[in-house]
C-alpha cells in the first residue's frame, strides 16, 4: 500500500529496512469484523475508500470472508487477522472437525466472564488447531501473512492463547483497552497492565488502545487525538454501527485526521462493481 495516499511519510531508512508502514502511523484507525457479513464488509470498505480508516481486521470461515478478501486485495487494504473463538463460523464450507472444535472453545469462553482469564488445559489442542486453521485460511484467502492480529470480543487475550505462544513473536498485536485513572478498579487495571507487559516482551504494541463508540459517548475523542500527537494510538471502530459511521464520515473527523496528518484528502477511488 502506498503510504502517501494517507498524507503520511516514511523515512528512506524505514523503507529500506522493510518495516511495516503501519508502524509509522501515530493513529491507527482499524475496522473490525471485515468479512463477518456483507454489510459489515461494505461499511468498512466505504470508510477506507473515503480515507477515514487505515486498516481492517478480517474474520475467516464467515459468510463473507471470500468476497471480503477479494475486495481487500483489489483495494490495497492493510489487513489483519481477527481471531474468532467466541462466535460460530458461518461459512458452510468450514470443515466439520474445525466447527466442532471451535464450538467446544466457544462454549467454554461463554460460560462466565472469568473463563477468558483462566487457562483450560483440556482445550489446549483445540485452541492450537483453531488458531492454526484460521491463520492458514487467512493465508489462503489473502496470499500473505496478516499485518496484525487481534480478536473478536478480544479473545486473542484469553489465557489459553496467551500462554500457548501460538502467535509468532514480533507481529503487531492488539493490547488491552486503555483507561484514564478512575475509570476502572485497581484489580482490573493491574491485570490489564500485567498482560500488556507480558505482550510487550514478545510482540509489537501501540501505546494506547481505545474504542470509538466509548470515546464518542464519553466525550473522550479530543483526549484520544491529543495522545496521538505524540504516541502511537489504535482506535477500534465498527462502521456498521450508525453512531460510528456517521462520526467517521463527518467533516469534524476529517479535520482531526488532517491535523494529525493521518487522513488527508479523501482517497480518489471507486467501489468495485460487485460491492
**Roughly how much helix do the residues carry, as a percent range?**
40-55%
Q: Which residue ranges are poorly predicted, with pLDDT under 50 across at least 5 consecutive positions?
A: 1-21, 263-275
Structural class: alpha/beta
Please, what is the average pLDDT? 85
CATH first level: Alpha Beta
Shape: globular
N-to-C terminal Cα separation, in Å? 21 Å
Write the element-wise H/E pattern from the N-terminal end onward: HEHEHEHHEHEHEHHEHH
Task: Give the amount of beta strand, in percent.
Answer: 5-15%
The total strand number stands at 7
Instruction: Give the CATH H-level superfamily.
Output: Glycoside hydrolase/deacetylase
Please tag this protein with its features.
12% strand; alpha/beta; seven-stranded parallel sheet; single chain; globular; disordered N terminus; 275 residues; 7 strands; TIM Barrel
Please outline the helices and strands.
Elements: H1 12-17, E1 27-34, H2 38-49, E2 55-58, H3 65-75, E3 79-83, H4 96-109, H5 124-142, E4 148-151, H6 159-162, E5 172-173, H7 186-200, E6 208-211, H8 212-217, H9 221-228, E7 233-237, H10 242-248, H11 251-260
Parallel strand pairs: 1-2, 1-7, 2-3, 3-4, 4-5, 6-7
Helix pairs in contact: 2-3, 4-5
Characterize the structure shown.
With 275 residues, the protein is of the alpha/beta class. The chain has a single domain, classed as Glycoside hydrolase/deacetylase (TIM Barrel). Helices cover 41% and strands 12% of the residues. The protein contains eleven helices and seven strands. A seven-stranded parallel β-sheet has the order 5-4-3-2-1-7-6. β1 (27-34), α2 and β2 (55-58) form a beta-alpha-beta unit. The radius of gyration is 18 Å and the shape is globular. It starts with 11 loop residues before the first helix and ends in a 15-residue tail after the last helix. Mean pLDDT is 85; it is low at 1-21 and 263-275.
Amino acid at each position: 500500500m502506498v503510504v502517501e495516499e494517507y498524507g503520511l511519510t516514511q523515512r528512506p531508512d524505514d523503507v529500506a529496512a522493510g518495516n511495516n508502514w503501519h508502524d509509522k502511523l501515530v493513529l491507527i484507525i482499524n475496522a473490525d469484523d471485515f468479512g463477518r457479513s456483507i454489510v459489515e464488509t461494505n461499511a468498512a470498505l466505504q470508510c477506507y475508500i473515503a480515507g477515514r480508516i487505515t486498516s481492517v481486521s478480517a474474520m475467516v470461515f464467515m459468510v463473507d470472508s471470500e468476497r471480503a478478501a477479494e475486495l481487500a486485495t483489489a483495494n490495497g487494504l492493510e489487513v489483519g487477522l481477527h481471531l474468532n473463538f467466541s462466535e460460530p463460523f458461518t461459512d458452510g464450507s468450514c470443515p466439520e472437525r474445525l466447527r466442532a472444535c471451535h464450538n467446544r472453545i466457544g462454549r467454554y469462553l461463554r460460560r462466565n466472564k472469568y473463563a477468558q482469564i483462566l487457562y483450560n488445559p483440556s482445550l489446549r489442542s483445540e485452541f492450537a488447531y483453531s488458531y492454526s486453521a484460521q491463520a492458514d485460511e487467512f493465508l489462503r484467502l489473502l496470499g500473505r501473512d496478516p499485518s496484525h492480529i487481534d480478536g473478536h470480543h478480544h479473545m486473542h487475550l484469553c489465557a489459553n492463547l496467551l500462554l500457548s505462544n501460538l502467535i509468532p513473536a514480533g507481529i503487531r498485536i492488539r493490547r488491552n483497552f486503555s483507561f484514564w485513572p478512575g475509570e476502572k478498579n485497581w484489580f482490573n487495571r493491574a491485570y490489564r497492565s500485567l498482560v500488556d507487559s507480558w505482550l510487550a516482551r514478545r510482540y509489537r504494541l501501540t501505546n494506547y488502545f481505545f474504542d470509538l463508540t466509548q470515546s464518542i459517548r464519553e466525550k473522550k475523542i479530543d483526549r484520544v487525538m491529543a495522545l496521538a500527537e505524540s504516541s502511537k494510538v489504535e482506535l477500534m471502530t465498527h462502521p456498521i454501527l450508525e453512531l460510528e459511521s456517521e462520526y467517521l464520515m463527518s467533516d469534524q473527523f476529517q479535520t482531526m485526521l488532517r491535523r494529525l496528518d493521518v487522513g488527508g484528502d479523501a482517497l480518489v477511488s471507486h467501489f468495485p462493481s460487485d460491492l
